[in-house]
Design a protein that fits this description.
The chain is an alpha/beta fold. The protein has four domains: 292 residues, TIM Barrel; 224 residues, Rossmann fold (3-Layer(aba) Sandwich), CATH 3.40.50; 160 residues, Sandwich (Jelly Rolls), CATH 2.60.120; 124 residues, Immunoglobulins (Immunoglobulin-like, Sandwich). Helices cover 22% and strands 25% of the residues. The strands form eight sheets. Strands 12, 13, 14, 16, 18, 19 and 21 form a seven-stranded antiparallel β-sheet that branches. The chain is globular and about 80 Å long. GO terms for molecular function: beta-glucosidase activity. Belongs to the glycosyl hydrolase 3 family. Its EC number is 3.2.1.21. This is beta-glucosidase.
């Protein structure tokens, strides 16, 4: 009897592979799986997107999942143990989705708060980013799920992200952008890496031998697999056939492959642009990884692939705690928070996000949640007895009209609406129906799923009964990548088919949102019908004749939204009137996944719509207004002096409402600390003059001075500094002690102790932050660099705790560019300890007697 795949040595497996099978291992059959080799009983592996949840294998038929807070929120906990638990939590979620690889975490640097994926990254600081990345990965991999840490490296904004070269000094590359990946490799040894879209030193990261083979494999000792980022329409994470294979990229994703086809690779082999030992090496890496995962999870890897969801009181409690611990109290003038029934009888809840399902940023991080507790739900359900809560919208702030699934029923009375797929005849007309599904979303994405039996071009018809709960005029919107029309009760209402206008829907491959106004009566259903085809858009010539051709669209999707048509001035005035007669105003606004998403960068720090105007007027009507900002990064706050309270609530996942209520009502004492600096204006941002790609290059001219390092060097006062966050109690730091240096080489070690005391009146958790100042090294260097932190949890009033922070060679080293190595120079190192980057009351120092250098990890 032949040995099974799990028992066969990898060298033996490689020797048995045919050339076409080796090629198959380096690509994929679809969006989420590797290729199986049935002849040798080699299984496929399934993966899924993160980093704040596990979406599963389909945008179209999504399996509900738990949605955790975004990574900027996670980083604001400054809690490695909690983030380790996040990894454990997500590993169990991944296994329920039949996945053994999570495409997470993202540990790029928040170089600019305007970056479309800024919310996916932990911080502007490389030490905080790397430390928490490692904690996340250790939790994930402790349960046998592989981390695909991403995006390696310098994928820090979306501007021309597949073409632009990130131009930076070697020191900035090493000390800022590679640093968190380096820490993660040292502390957690990820099992896989995902490359960035862009270029470094003129070469795309996915085909960059200096980066993949030189730094990652040889210098850092990484022995897992390296995969590409995914393609979106014309954008792709792989840019050629032989270059990426020779550089060390093991897996092109997703499939079917565009470059690693049998024809192209055989051509490269025959021309000796690619040699068989290199192909064998890539196949060896893939087989080693597949065998490892199959041994850990044979029940999943050889299982039926069924996706499942889970929910329990314990899980909800964890999500709620994680969300609450990440929220940052930025302002509390007069200590009017927390809201208690002894002080407050009437609460006004106002804002565009108050009743919205704003739980995550957009793009790869988006998922279908198992449930959502909105801010309104949480504030009402957790309100103290005797408190009256009323709501006003105040203003809209959406980019696209809100989705309508909660107002839809199928003709049979089920929740949602029916989606039917049709083949096309030779003339491109829909004929035979091949499949039918009930969907719970009016955002339809079809890139990673199609039913069997379709022709190259095809049609879907979406039908449901739309019933609104208020008699009013409603604005409906239809956005499409492809072509579509919308009918209400048989009447053509929106035509986004005949003459289309390009827009930024679906990563810039779709149209603008075409709108129409209809009058709807409360409780009276109307038939909503959308017909969509995957063919490219029609001509916009003036004769109105449909001249669309029959070529399939590269991206496939359609989105339907709608909302009551309001008088904007009246909505603001109604909100001001309610605020004036309330004891406290809670405003919930900020951004949404349509404003902050993969695929584009924000053009401004300003919040959309008339939010800034509304908040200022609310504060004038009632200064006891607390503004709760839902966003993954910084927003402008021109009203900051008009309100007494501000909470940075981030994107907090499906428990956002309960967590926000916990903070505002004082059931949880806020302990979050800003994981990034909040600038007073765009012009203060370190990267302000170098945000976009120019002639194919993004210049990182701020160099090492990213985030707080820039503000301190330029003596610019930010709106709120890095590491800042208030509490309902007060903490006092004392008794700084620094142990003697234990060595003068790579085993360097120093222990720093400090006492944190709760000198307030309620229990709270406090974060101690440690910054290092290097001696004069003859080079321009930031004056302060975070190199350690610790969290004292649940300190009772009147008690104290001694925290210990250990420093190693990473804390004292800089990259010596001419020597191409890390150096720690002899001299005096200053240690500053406090509760934020601009509040460092404890100061000390230690001396390093001898300079030493090191490389690797």
């Amino acid at each position: 009897m032949s040995r099974s795949f799990l028992e066969t040595p990898i060298d033996e497996l490689v020797s048995k592979l045919k050339v076409d099978e080796k090629i198959a291992l380096l690509g994929a059959p679809n969006w989420w799986n590797t290729n199986a080799i049935p002849r040798l009983k080699i299984p496929a592996l399934k993966m899924s997107d993160g980093p704040n949840g596990v979406r599963g294998a389909s945008h179209f038929l999504s399996t509900p999942a738990q949605c955790l807070p975004c990574e900027t929120s996670m980083a604001s906990t400054f809690d490695t143990e909690l983030i380790h638990d996040v990894g454990v939590f997500l590993a169990e979620e991944a296994k329920l989705k039949a996945s053994v690889i999570l495409l997470a975490p993202t540990c790029n640097i928040q170089r600019t708060p305007l970056g479309g994926r800024a919310f996916e990254s932990f911080s502007e600081d490389p030490h905080l980013s790397g430390t928490l990345t490692a904690a996340y990965i250790n939790g994930l991999q402790s349960r046998g799920v592989a981390s695909a840490i991403k995006h390696f490296v310098a994928n820090d904004q979306e501007s021309e992200r597949t073409a632009a070269e990130s131009v930076m000094s070697d020191r900035a590359l090493r000390e800022i952008y590679l640093y968190p990946f380096m820490l993660a490799q040292k502390l957690s040894e990820p099992w896989s890496f995902m490359t960035a879209y862009g270029r470094l030193h003129g070469v795309h990261c996915s085909e960059n031998p200096e980066l993949l083979d030189g730094i990652l494999r040889k210098e850092w000792g990484f022995d897992g697999i390296i995969m590409s980022d995914w393609y979106v329409a014309f954008r792709h994470g792989v840019y050629g056939t032989d270059q990426s294979i020779n550089a060390g990229l093991d897996l092109e994703m997703p499939g079917p492959p565009r470059w690693r086809t049998a024809f192209l690779i055989q051509h490269c082999l025959s021309s000796q642009k690619l040699k068989m030992p290199t192909l064998d090496e890539r196949a060896h890496k893939m087989l080693t990884f597949i065998q490892k995962m199959a041994r850990i999870h044979p029940d999943i890897v050889f299982g039926d692939g069924t996706e499942r969801s889970r929910d329990s009181p314990e899980m909800r409690k964890f999500c709620r705690k994680l969300a609450g611990d990440g929220m940052v109290l930025l302002k509390n003038t007069g200590n009017f928070l927390p809201i208690t029934p002894t002080k407050v009888k009437k609460i006004a809840v106002i804002g565009p996000n108050a009743k919205g399902n704003v739980i995550s940023g957009g793009g790869s991080a988006a998922l279908k949640p198992t449930y959502v507790v909105t801010p309104w739900d949480g504030l009402v359900q957790n309100a103290p007895k005797g408190v009256d809560i009323k709501y006003e919208l105040g203003c809209y702030a959406h980019k696209y009209l809100p989705t309508l699934e909660s107002y839809l029923k199928t003709p049979k009375g089920e929740s949602g609406w029916v989606c039917a797929f049709f083949k096309h005849d030779a003339q491109g007309n829909p004929t035979e129906q091949v499949a039918e599904y009930v969907l719970q979303d009016t955002r339809i994405k079809l890139n990673d799923f199609l039913p069997a039996g379709l022709t190259p071009t095809w049609t879907i018809k979406l039908k449901g009964l739309l019933t609104m709960d208020k008699t009013a005029a409603y604005e409906l919107g239809l956005t499409v990548a492809g072509r579509a029309k919308l009918w209400i009760d048989g009447k053509l209402t929106i035509d986004n088919w005949t003459n289309q206008r390009p827009g930024d829907f679906f990563y810039g491959q779709g149209t603008v949102e075409e709108k129409a106004t209809v009058n709807l009566k409360a409780g009276s259903p109307v038939e909503l019908l959308v017909e969509y085809t995957n063919t490219v858009g029609a001509s916009s010539e003036d004769d109105g004749v449909d001249k669309g051709n029959s070529q399939p669209a590269l991206m496939r999707g359609v989105r339907i939204g709608g909302a009551e048509k309001i008088d904007p001035d009246k909505a603001i005035n109604d909100a001001i009137a309610l605020a004036a007669k309330s004891d406290v105003v809670v405003f919930v606004g900020g951004l949404t996944p349509e404003w902050e998403s993969e695929g584009f960068d924000r053009p401004t720090l300003d919040m959309p719509g008339r939010q800034n105007e509304l908040i200022a007027k609310l504060g004038q009507a009632n200064p006891n207004t607390v503004v709760c900002i839902q966003a993954g990064s910084a927003v402008a706050m021109p009203w900051v002096q008009h309100v007494n309270g501000i909470v940075q609530a981030w994107y907090s996942g499906n428990e956002v409402g309960n967590a926000l209520a916990d903070i505002l009502y004082g059931d949880v004492n806020p302990s979050g600390k800003l994981s990034l600096t909040l600038p007073a204006c765009m012009e203060d941002m370190p990267s302000y003059l170098n945000l976009q790609s120019e002639n194919g290059q993004i210049h990182y001219r701020e160099d090492l001075f990213v985030g707080y390092k820039h503000y301190q060097a330029r003596n610019i006062k930010p709106l709120f500094p890095f590491g800042f966050g208030l509490s309902y109690t007060k903490f006092l730091l004392s008794n700084l002690s620094i142990s003697a240096v234990t060595s003068h080489d790579e085993s360097f070690s120093v222990a720093v102790n400090a006492t944190i005391a709760n000198v307030g009146s309620v229990t709270g958790s406090g974060v101690v932050q440690l910054y290092i100042t290097l001696p004069d090294i003859g080079l321009t260097t930031p004056s302060l660099q975070l190199k350690g932190f610790a969290k004292a949890r649940d300190l009772a009033a009147g008690t104290s705790q001694t925290v210990k922070i250990s420093l190693d060679k990473y804390a004292i080293s800089y990259w010596n560019t001419p020597k191409k190595a890390w150096y720690a120079n002899a001299g005096e190192y200053h240690v500053l300890v406090g509760t934020s980057s601009d509040d460092l009351p404890l100061k000390g120092s230690f001396k390093l007697k001898q300079t030493f250098s090191w490389s690797g990890l």
